[in-house]
Design a protein that fits this description.
alpha+beta, binds cytidine-5'-diphosphate, 9 strands, four-stranded antiparallel β-sheet
Length: 235
């Protein structure tokens, strides 16, 4: 059966409601919250600081280290605490999605740590994590070539759509999910994964949807950063 109407009534190219805020964790050098529908990510940045053990240091530039974690109460069924294969994979793709936007040459021998905690999960958590992390890095004052925004697109019951929720990801009559991250001003894709099957034409169509959605997300990120700057100026 063709998926003619979305479960939550959204248009096929419509994102869930988004909320973004920077400076949410006082003890961090930079932090952010990014909510898209019922998926909530918090990112905190520590650094740049000297990297130990010393043999891991790169004298030419600083390194980025990301840690993605879903908290145990983020979904109905309790998640076992601690690293998993999935969280290691997501930490790695998050690092790769963020790196092209960063300028770490100014920080030889240093590390920038990004901790991403998924507080609530309703699909699209790696993308929400990347959006939060990018904001937190900017909030920490790390030199950046561009922001990084991310969204998942895909095909549900034969229909291409943006920002799948968990019910759509689990749609019985078929669903494929393609998380995409991009540097919006540079028009560069820094993450492209695919869970499920898609024909090359479908990938093209979904990618167009993702780019359009990412540009909207980047405006929300920009406003969140400007909001903090504005508040600091007024105080
Ligand atoms: O979250 P994302 O879509 O980036 O990654 P996924 O591995 O495709 O997971 C999809 C969704 O499954 C998550 O967003 C959660 O809502 C859910 N999930 C879960 O319920 N329990 C897990 N251990 C992992 C994921």
């Amino acid at each position: 059966m063709v998926y003619s109407k979305r479960i939550d009534g959204r248009k096929f190219d419509e994102l869930r409601e988004i909320e973004a805020k920077v400076g949410v964790v006082k003890s961090a050098d930079g932090s952010a919250m990014f909510r898209i529908g019922d998926t909530v990510a918090i990112a905190a940045v520590r650094g740049p600081r000297d990297l130990y053990p010393k043999f891991m240091q790169n004298p030419k530039k600083g390194i980025l280290r990301c840690n993605y974690n879903m908290v145990s109460f983020s979904v109905d069924e309790r998640i076992r605490p601690g690293p998993s294969r999935r969280s290691r994979e997501i930490s790695l793709v998050t690092e790769n999605a963020l790196l092209p936007a960063l300028n770490l040459e100014e920080f030889p021998n240093a590390v920038v740590d990004v901790f991403i905690e998924i507080i609530q999960a309703d699909a699209g958590t790696r993308c929400a994590g990347i959006c939060a992390a990018s904001l937190a890095l900017a909030d920490a004052g790390i030199p950046m070539r561009d922001m990084v925004c991310a969204v998942s697109v895909g095909k549900v019951g034969g229909k291409a759509l943006v920002d799948l929720n968990k019910k759509e990801e689990d749609y019985e009559e078929g669903s494929s999910d393609m998380p995409v991250a991009m540097l919006p001003r540079k028009n560069e894709i820094s993450l492209l994964q695919l869970d499920g099957d898609m024909k090359p034409d479908d990938i093209d169509g979904c990618l167009k949807l993702a780019i359009k959605a990412c540009k909207k997300i980047s405006e929300i990120q920009r406003n969140a950063l400007m909001g903090k700057y504005q508040m600091e100026k007024e105080n």
